[in-house]
Structures are given as structure tokens and as C-alpha cells.
Amino acid sequence: PRGRALDLAMGLGRNAVYLAHQGWTVDGVDRSPEAVQKAMALAGSLGVHINGIVADLGTYEIRPGSYDLICCFYFLERRLFPAIQQGLRPGGAVLYQSVTIDQLALRPAFPREHCLEPNELLTGFQNLRVLYYREAVVNILGTDAAVASLFAVKETG
To answer: Span 29-36, mean pLDDT?
Structure first.
């Protein structure tokens, strides 16, 4: 079922626009005013609406119990892990994917602080029911990346 979604670090809005096209009411947050503007223009050109929010995710506050889906792709702010869980409504889900320390073998110059440790997403979202978790090297748009992927649900009871 569709509802309210939050796309953290939405960048140019590809995922936020996809969710809006699928019938979700979407808030998309990014620190770049230009990215938010482009994301909203993309949504408008496809006949959907997203609520673009310019904010620094290092200090952004997610309202507790506000979202049915929170997604975050290729952005790591560990402080947000508890806030994401609290931001979900009962039955709400989180979809999170970001690079792991195995990325350093593929790109040694990649900043280590932006890399997840092994099983870090599992630990960070241990209060949710994990339905899917994987750490692997995958090909994304023609480039190999070492990623951890998590899909988890907040229990309703």
C-alpha cells in the first residue's frame, strides 16, 4: 500500500519521482538547492509532485511516526539510523543501500568514514524486522560497487 515516503539525500530525485509516479506522497531531502530544484522540475515534467526540502542531513529532524517508507541510497549519516526508525509509522518500511568498506578495495581513495562496516546496517536497524539484507559487489550503471542493502519493517504491535 502507498502512503507517505521520505527520500533522504535524494540528489536529482530519480527515486523520489519514481515513488511519486507510483502514487506515494513524497518528501525528498537534499542539501543541494540545485539538486532539489532539478528533482522538482523532473517531477513536474512527468506530471507528478514531490515536496523538495533543502536541508543538511547532519542536522535534519525526521518527524516521529510520519512515514510509511523511508529510503536512503548512497548516503551515510549514522546519526539518522534511530531517527529513521522513529520516523516510521507502525508497519512502515526502510529501504537503505550504501557502500561498505569493501569499496576501498575497488576505489582506495574513497573516504572510509563514508563506508559501512560489515553488518552495520543490521546492527543499526536491529529494532526492525529485517526482510532482506545483503552485502555484495554489484554493478550499478556500469560501475562495480561494494554495497549493503537492507529492507526492514517496523512491527505494528
So the answer is: 98
